[in-house]
Structures are given as C-alpha cells and as structure tokens.
Amino acid sequence: xxxxxxxxxxxxxxxxxxxxxxxxxxxxxxxxxxxxxxxxxxxxxxxxxxxxxxxxxxxxxxxxxxxxxxxxxxxxxxxxxxxxxxxxxxxxxxxxxxxxxxxxxxxxxxxxxxxxxxxxxxxxxxxxxxxxxxxxxxxxxxxxxxxxxxxxxxxxxxxxxxxxxxxxxxxxxxxxxxxxxxxxxxxxxxx
Length: 191
Fold this sequence. Notes:
The protein is mostly helical. It has a single domain (about 1-190), classed as Orthogonal Bundle (Farnesyl Diphosphate Synthase). It has 10 helices and no strands. Helix 1 (about 1-25) packs antiparallel against helix 2 (about 30-60), helix 6 (about 110-120) packs across helix 7 and helix 7 runs antiparallel to helix 8. The longest helix has 28 residues, at about 60-90. It is elongated and about 55 Å long.
C-alpha cells in the first residue's frame, strides 16, 4: 500500500509539473527556485519516490527509506539539469531534437535563468517569443556566451554529490556502488 501511495504521488507531481511548465512559458520572472520545483515535479519525484518504494519493498528502516528518497530526488534534479544543459551543448543528432528547442517553446531552464542575470537582451527575445527570424540564434548565442551553462553544471554536480551523500547510510555493496556509479554517469553525460 505504501508503494501505491508513493507512485500515486508521482502521478500527481507529474501533472502538477506539466501545469507549472505550461503556466510559466516565456515568463522571464521565473526563479531558480520555481524551476527546481517544476523540475522536481516533472522528473525528480519519479526517481525519489521510486527509490523510496524500492526501500519499502526491501524492508529498510524509515530513516533509510527517507535517505533513498533524497538520493532519488537529488539524482533526478541533477539528471534534469544536465538534460537542460545538453539542450544548448549537444548536437541535434544526440538530442533527437533541435538545439534550444526547450527555450524556443518557452521552457526557461537553469542555463537560461542564469544567463538572464547577465544578458538583459535575452529577456527581450524571450518576451517577444522569438518572433524575429534571428531571435532563436541570438538567444542561443547569449546563453552560450554567459556563465549560465557553467553555473548549471556546478548546480548539477552539487545535486549529484548530495545524492551520493544521501546513501552513505547504506553498507558497502554492489548495489550501493551501482547507485554511486549512476550518480557519476548522470554528470558524465556532459562530457
């Protein structure tokens, strides 16, 4: 029953995340905190509650189950931040979609939010929803020329490191090492 409740929470969070994303399209007043809340709902809730569910099914203590939840939460946030970085740094072939497609659709991710702090003209491009033919390329260049990607990498690394710290309560095992390796893999997608 506990696992059913956890997975029901995931469904609720995902729906809420989609609504949050839809309501905040092209909203240049979006904060990093708002972005992280939406990212939790759309991505990290699944990982957090799935990790906790695995713990519940394994009969771990409540404290360990909570640590697994936080491992999944932090891993999920790191994963999505990396994914958002790749939207600016990876090729269309790797992404399976055009670079910057999140930005063009109005989804303001960490690299964009950080770039907005340095590049005020980016706000103009976003608020007019890339109406001019050169707007998309200008916006991509502004994000790439800012510290937005670097700061996002640092934030992703912080969450990946926190995820590993969350499972320090687990005794050494192949399973624990696999969880650590997964955290390393999330960051390795950047390179």
